[in-house]
Amino acid sequence: MSQMMRRSKWNNSHAQQEKLRAENRRREEFVEDNNRMLKTEAMINANIIAEEKVENKILMRRLQREAQEVEMDKALEESKKTKEQREQQIRQEEELAREMAKLRAKEMQDSKLRQQIRETSTRYGNWKPS
Asked: What SS3 class is residue 127?
C-alpha cells in the first residue's frame, strides 16, 4: 500500500505539475498573442499616420496650386484691364489729336480767308457799296 500511495501521490504531483505547465504555456501564449496584437496595432496606427501625412501633403499642394491659379487669373485679368485702359487712352488721344488738327486746319483756313479779305480790302480801298 505504501507503494501505491507513493504512486498516487507521485501521479497527483505529476498531474499538478503538468497542469501548472499547461497554465504557464497558456499564459505565455496569451502574452505573446497580446504582444503581437499590440505590435500590429502600432504598425496600423503608424501606417494611418503616414497615410494622413501623405494626404495632407497632397491637399496642401493642391491648395497651393489652386491659389497660384487664382493669382495668375487675377494677374491676367489685371493685365488685360490695364491693356484695355491703355488702348482706350490711345484711342482718346488719337481722337483728340484729330480734333485738334481739324481745329488748326479750320483756324488756318479762317486766317487765310481774313488775309484775303484784308488784301482785297486794301487793294480796292475802303470800298463801300452805294
From this structure: coil
CA dist 98 → 85, 87, 92, 93, 103 (Å): 20, 16, 10, 9, 9
How far lies 49's CA from each of 37, 40, 42, 56, 78, in Å?
18, 14, 10, 10, 43
Share of the chain above pLDDT 70, in %: 85
Q: pLDDT for 12-25, tens place per residue? A: 787 888 899 999 99
Of the chain, the percentage scoring pLDDT greater than 90 comes to 72
What grid cell was written down for 33?
498573442
CA dihedral (52, 58, 63, 64) in degrees, to 10, reads 120
Query: Which residue type occupies 97?
Result: A
